[in-house]
Design a protein that fits this description.
CATH superfamily of the largest domain: P-loop containing nucleotide triphosphate hydrolases
Strand content: 15-25%
Number of strands: 20
Shape: globular
Strand order of the largest sheet: 6-7-8-3-9-10
Largest sheet: 6 strands, mixed
CATH architecture of the largest domain: 3-Layer(aba) Sandwich
CATH topology of the largest domain: Rossmann fold
Number of helices: 19
Distance between the termini: 34 Å
Length: 530
């Protein structure tokens, strides 16, 4: 199905290759997991397989790539689309129609499928991915996680010969992510398509693929082999693979054992019990609806000075809407927001942003300067802080692991690097409150560890941090407590370990992520090999 011979590729104006000397073979029906740090070349390799590199992105291409017997430099993306399905990491690249049902049916209609078969397939996808509530809604009004579910369903609907998936589960809540991985496995067994998936959540895929290829910057395959072999060879891992490597996948532990283990991980960051801290950010009775459809219903939320709070819930539960109401991008129909006991009613977004930093799910909306460094300079100038920045920009880029790309155009970076660039452009002003929407999207475990450590340092200086995320292991390591949203209402919350274990879908994911018995906190991961 796939034959790559000495493939080397440079993006336009780049002096460093994104891929270098790639040799890869994939037989029909094989399942491959691409692992590696952010910026190692995983997404670029997938773009070679669907023809977007070099036909869409331009640049310089050397070597030979054949997919389904077609030479990609001659065939191009349109011809390859007859054989290749792709789930893109970037939300804006995913859709060709405006509605969920149309998107699911589009590929089958183009392929000439009969209407009865299209209806049957669409109904099956809707049932498996629980897409019923999304039908009839415009795709641009869905959350990023909901959009991801539709994109995965659309890519799988035609049963392509080769399915490419770029970080397909990072925007999904844990129960949905597990359902997607299981569904992909079921369909692959049934239809025997070839699968190549790039993901930082190695633990979700290691038991479901036949081969793992580990990429290291600048775009080289450093190691390749069977999953069990690669568990021991990959020089970094998420908590799942690292705990499995250390403990050899011990027998399943009881809930009490798991809770005790997680509490032991949290102990270094818990300090006191969090009581007594004055609320720095306070929301009361927040209610909001999209075209009459409730998104938030009478929500109360508070985050204390120096506190890191996680906001969790299924896709579409209202997490993003709540953050947008707190920063002022969405005006609630009722309720009020206070910052340090001062009401923010009527305060414009630009003024709120001087004290409240907000990083949305799609970092591209914050990035427009010619370089990463220029993004930080622009933010400081806008806040009148250019002469006396509260945070050293160079040190901040170093701590976030993107100092080496400070001169790069932000939109040319990998998704994980763009996410960190957006974070840096907000953190450089040291806001009193920090609102983060899925901040670990596209980040490798080392970048997650560095981000968590930075957030902890900011909290120690008094910053109030509210993190909306599906990243269970990140929240387990760095959040003191959690707030649970469901259907736009707060349905629970409390200390991190207790809250996670009270939610069945999240508990299952946590057990997987912690290697069954003893969790490995991201900050406990060994240093990456030079």
């Amino acid at each position: 199905m796939v034959e790559l011979d000495r493939v080397t590729y440079w993006y336009p104006d780049s002096k460093t290759p994104a891929l270098e000397g790639i040799d890869l073979r994939l037989r029909d029906g094989e399942r491959l997991l691409l692992a590696g740090a952010s910026g190692a070349g995983k997404s670029t390799l997938l773009r070679v397989l669907n023809g977007l590199v070099p036909h869409f992105y331009g640049g310089r291409f050397r070597g030979r790539a054949k997919v389904g017997g077609l030479d990609t430099r001659q065939a191009g993306p349109v011809a390859l689309a007859q054989h290749v399905g792709m789930v893109f990491q970037e939300p804006q690249a995913r859709f060709l129609t405006s509605g969920a049902e149309d998107e699911l049916a589009f590929g089958m209609e183009v392929a000439g499928a009969k209407q009865a078969e299209i209806r049957r397939q669409v109904a099956d996808i809707v049932d498996r991915l629980d897409l019923g509530p999304l039908l009839g809604r415009p795709l641009d009004r869905l959350s990023v996680g909901e959009q991801a579910k539709v994109a995965i369903g659309a890519a799988l609907s035609r049963h392509p010969g080769l399915l490419l998936m770029d970080e397909p589960t990072t925007e999904l809540d844990p129960p949905t992510a597990q359902a997607v991985v299981g569904w992909v496995e079921d369909l692959q067994r049934e239809h025997a398509f070839t699968l190549a998936v790039a993901d930082h959540r190695l633990g979700r895929w290691l038991d479901r693929v036949e081969r793992v290829a580990f990429l290291r910057s600048p775009g080289r395959i450093e190691a390749e082999g069977a999953p069990q072999e690669m568990r021991m060879r990959i020089p970094f891992g998420d908590p799942a693979s690292e705990a499995a490597r250390r403990m050899g996948r011990p027998a399943e532990a009881s809930r009490d054992e798991l809770a005790h283990a997680l509490h032991s991980v949290l102990r270094p960051i818990r300090g006191d019990d969090g009581g007594g801290a004055e609320p720095r950010l306070l929301g009361r009775g927040l209610t909001f609806a999209y075209n009459g459809r409730p998104a938030l219903v009478d929500v109360d939320v508070e985050v204390g000075e120096g506190e890191i709070v996680g906001l969790i819930g299924r896709n579409g539960s209202g997490k993003t809407t709540l953050l947008r109401c707190l920063i002022g991008l969405a005006a609630p129909s009722s309720g009020e927001v206070w910052l340090d006991t001062k009401s923010l009613s009527g305060v414009p977004v630009a003024e709120r942003a001087r004290a409240v930093g907000y990083v949305p799910q799609s970092p591209g909306s914050l990035l427009f300067a010619e370089s990463v460094e220029a993004e930080l300079t622009f933010t400081l100038a806008s806040h009148g802080l250019l002469d006396h920045p509260p945070v050293d920009p160079s040190d901040l880029l170093e701590r976030l692991g993107i100092a080496e790309v400070r001169g790069s155009y932000p939109r040319d970076l990998s998704a994980g690097q763009r996410q960190r660039a957006a974070l840096a452009s907000v953190l450089v002003t040291r806001p009193r409150v920090l609102l983060l929407d899925e901040p670990t999207l596209g980040m490798d475990p080392w970048a997650q560890r560095d981000l968590g450590t930075l957030l902890r340092d900011l909290a120690a200086d008094g910053t109030a941090v509210l993190v909306a995320s599906h990243d269970v292991d990140f929240l387990a390591a760095f959040a003191r407590r959690l707030i649970v949203l469901d259907g736009g209402r707060i349905t629970g919350g409390g200390p991190t370990a207790d809250t996670l274990f009270a939610l069945e879908g999240f508990r299952t994911s946590l057990q997987e992520l912690t290697g069954r018995a003893w969790p490995a906190c991201p900050e406990d991961l060994p240093a990456p090999r030079a």
